Amino acid sequence: MRNTVNILLSGGGTGGHIYPAIAIANELKNRNQSANILFVGANNRMEMEKVPQAGYEIKGLWISGIQRKLTIDNLMFPFKLISSCWNAFKIIRQFKPSVVIGTGGFASGPTLLVANWLKIPTLIQEQNSYPGITNKLLAKKTAKICVAYDGMEKYFPADKLIKTGNPVRNDLLQVTNVRDEAISFFNLNLQKRTLLVLGGSLGARAINQLIEKNIDYLVSKNIQVIWQTGKLYYEDYKSYDAVDGIQTHTFLNQMNFAYAAADFIISRAGASSISELCIVAKPTIFIPSPNVAEDHQTKNAQAVVNNNAALMIRESALTSFKNVFDDLLNDEKKQIELGLNMNKMALPEATFTIVDEIEKLITINK
């Protein structure tokens, strides 16, 4: 792309939708500095903070998801959808994008829906192994669907699919080169092995409770812990910084260092997290959230487990944690095997491949 072009991206709600969109935007800018890039997100969601921090403009829509029980928000949903479609229409008509990209999240639905109505090429970046209903509906009119897993023709038109993987931050591609720097950054003890605990940007109650319950056990195993509690739970657990070898963090801004320092990882099973972990290729125990649409985190984790590339413990079975972790800790062959198999699943060129597809759509639309 050499000429000025307008590109609209929509994704948010969680870091798993936001950071892939930002990675795509960054690569688009790398290829064409004159490209005009605009984001559309949901008001009062984290994208309204994270996208401007990344240097991009964002417009907000009055939209939210449907709750599983009868709430005022559910009763308001039809009005929010109409309002969001109307505002997305105004944004698109004013911005005049050559292509519209959706990476998931509440705002992505109405934005791509309107773009399809207006015959503007759209691209869906589906991160999960089991797509949500919004993307299934949008797929009928979208031009291209970039996916991270095999077998997605069960849900989408096969002729629109391209397996690209999920975008990850560039600094994660070189984590093996910064281990010494990472050890210093976190002030870690070289005589101990390190467990990295990730529950997402907001945090995961079940994972936090698990670590709290097992702190004495982990310390007894000579394990030091980098524990991302999430901002919802940090105040509840920050006192554990006083325990030798335990450090709590609201959020880890230097994820490349966190991954580089880790010998073992406990994580939720969001699609972006899995894509990052496949590149990092460290022995991982997934504890998927059971509270997400269509239980897609469990399906994501199972796809990795089926390749003998990670372990999984469901929230309902966390009493087995000590046995599972003990077995992993004492089996160096298993640790190596999981790492190698995870690395085989990695798709480090995902961002570049997705942007290649976007450029094709822009060329077609000229």
Describe the structure.
The protein has two domains: 6-168 and 348-365, 3-Layer(aba) Sandwich (Rossmann fold); 170-345, Glycogen Phosphorylase B (Rossmann fold), CATH 3.40.50. Helices cover 43% and strands 17% of the residues. It has helices spanning 15-31, 47-53, 72-95, 108-117, 133-138, 179-185, 205-213, 215-220, 234-237, 255-261, 271-280, 296-305, 321-329, 332-345, 350-365, and strands at residues 6-11, 36-42, 57-61, 99-104, 122-126, 144-147, 161-163, 193-198, 223-228, 246-249, 264-267, 284-286, 311-312. The strands form two sheets. A seven-stranded parallel β-sheet has the order 3-2-1-4-5-6-7, sandwiched between helices. The protein has a six-stranded parallel β-sheet with strand order 10-9-8-11-12-13, sandwiched between helices. α9 links the parallel β9 (223-228) and β10. α11 (271-280) crosses α14. It is globular, with a radius of gyration of 21 Å. The relative contact order is 0.13. The mean pLDDT is 90.
